[in-house]
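Lab notebook, page 48
Experiment: co-folding of the full assembly
Goal: obtain a model of how the components sit together before planning crosslinking
Operator: M.T.
Materials (sequences as entered):
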Amino acid sequence: MTKIYQSASEALSDLSSGMTLMSGGFGLCGIAENCIDAITFMDVKDLTVISNNIGNAGKGLVKILVQNKIKKAYCSYVGGNPDLEKLMLADEIEVELVPQGTFSERIRAGGMGIRGFYTPTGFGTKISEGKEVKVFDRPCILELPLRADFAIIKAQKGDPYGNLWFKEAARNFSPLMAMAADITVVEVEELVELGDIAPEDVHLPGIFVQRIFKGKDYKNDIEYRKVKS
Amino acid sequence: MSWTKEQMADEVIKLFIKNCSVNLGIGLPSIVAERLPPDLNIMVHSENGILGVGERPTENEVSPTLINAGKETVTIIKGASYFDSSLSFGMIRGGHIDFSVLGGMEVDVAGNLANWMIPGKKVTGMGGAMDLVNGSKNVIVMMNHFTKKGIPKLKDHCELPLTGAAVVNMVVTEMGMFSPDKNKFKIIKLAEGAKNLDLGPVE
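Observation: model returned without errors.
Model output:
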C-alpha cells in the first residue's frame, strides 16, 4: 500500500468532527500550509487542536480558529496571536496552556509509549494545580502524554516511505507530533526517491508517517523580518 | 541618569562566563544578543531548535526557516546545530544551559517571577519561560523597573500568577542590578539616577 497521496484534501478526507489534531510549526515557521488550507474547506467542527501557537498574526491555524472549528486548544504561547487571546479573554474557547518543554515532552511521551513523567517545570504555579507532586531532589509534578487522531506536518524533503528531512529550524515539534498521532499526514516541498535522503541524514524515520504528498504554493511567511542595519 | 537598554544589556553580559551557553528571551533580552563580544565564545540557544544563533541576516541571507524564539530572522555561527523541540527543552531541563535571560512583569524577594499573564486583561502564555527558569543554571531577569503607572516591579510578594517559584538569581533594570535575598533585594549595583527613588523592597 502506498503512502503517497495527491493532495491535502485527499490525505485528510477522513478527518472528522470531534477529532484531535496535532499541527507542527513554531509560529508560522514550518507549518503545514496545504493541510491547514484544506481543513478550511472541510465540514468539520469541535476539533481539539494541539499546536504551539494555534497560528499567529491571522495566519496558519488562525484560519480554522476564526471559522469556529476548534473547540479546545493545547498550546504554550498566545503572544502574537490576537485572535486567540481575544477568544480566551472572552471565555469563548477552552485552552490549556502548557509550558513549552512540558508540551513537547508530553507529545514525545505520547509517541514513545511513556505513560507519564515528573518535571520541576511549573511547580508552585497554576500549572501544578490538581497534579500529583513527588519530591526528588526537588518537587516535581506528574505530566501525562498527549496523543492525536491526526498530525499534520511539513518537511522540506520526504521519500515514499515517509523518511523526512527538515530545513534549518523548521523541525521544532513536527517529528514529535508525527510519533504521537494515529495518522500522520506529511506535506513536503520536495518528494524524492527512496535512498535520496542518506540514512544518516534522516531526521524522522518513515515508520512514523502514514501519508505523504507534495505540497504547492508555499508562502513560508516571515513574522518579524529583521536584517543587519 | 538611569541605565539605557544598551547599558542594561552590557551589565547582563558582564555576568556571563567565557564559553557558556545562553538563552535570551523575547523583548529586552534580545538586545543582549546584539552586544555579545565575540571573544567570549558564547553559544546562544534558541528554544525553537538552534544552538549557535548568530547576528541578523543581510537581505540576501534571510530565510523563513531560520528564526529565533521571538520569530525574528537570524543567522547561525560556525559550530551551530539544529534539533527538535524535545531535545531543545532537554538541554534546558537537563541543566545544560548556563544562563537564561528573561523579561519580567514582577519579581519578588523570594526570587519568584511572574511574566506570563494578567488575569482578565492579557494572556501571552508562558512559552518556554517555565522550563527555562527551572532548568537553567542561572536565571537573570531583565526588565523595566517600574510599571507604566510608576509602581516598582520589584515586590515583597508577586501578585500576578507565577512563572516560577524561587528561581530568579539576578534582576537587571534601568535602576541597577539586584539579587533576591530572603526578605529584600540586595543592591549589587545602583544606577546614578536611582538615588532617592522608591525602588521597592531594596536595601
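Interpretation: The mean pLDDT of chain B is 96.
Next step: discuss with group before ordering constructs.
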